[in-house]
Amino acid sequence: MIRDDRMKAIAVVLTAALCVALLCGCGKTEAPAASASYMQIGQDEAASLMESEEDYILLDVRTQEEYESGHIPGAVCIPNESIGIEEIAALPDKDQLILVYCRSGRRSKEAAQKLADLGYTNVKEFGGIIDWTGEIIG
Question: Cβ contacts of residue 79 below 8 Å, gap of 6+?
């Protein structure tokens, strides 16, 4: 009889513990915040936007030395390494169209994501100048 009572008590405790564990798991959980994003476009689309749009920034994220050795006309140079968590004075309008390129496409993707994370809403990355078929100056 004592053994049966002890078994019943253990069963009740285990059942209660299971119920508590299940109830704790039913609480509302926050979904992870979606990371900001940019749009990747082709070079033809970038060239088309440069022809049709007036208020955009053409952003070269290579080093200053690379920029000086040749860049797309109208581009401004803000090296990828200098884009971080602080506001960028040269890019005050976070809703302005920003077309981003680098040498091969790796740094421009990194820079575009960092810009999106900073709150820029209209960032389009189009790869590298090595594939650019339009004019290059410098």
Answer: 61, 62, 63, 64
Q: What is the number of structural domains in the chain?
A: 1
CATH of residue 117's domain is 3.40.250.10
Distance of CA 95 to the CA centre of its chain: 15
**Structural domain range at position 73:** 39-131
Could you say which of 19, 24, 77, 102 is catalytic? 102
Question: Does residue 26 carry a catalytic annotation?
Answer: no
Residue 22 lies in a domain: no
Per-residue pLDDT at 25 exceeds 80: no
pTM (whole model) above 0.70: yes
- In terms of C-beta distances under 8 Å and separation of at least 24 residues, what long-range contacts does 63-70 make, across chains too? 66/103, 67/138, 68/138, 69/138, 70/129, 70/136, 70/137, 70/138
Instruction: Indicate whether 72 belongs to any domain.
Output: yes
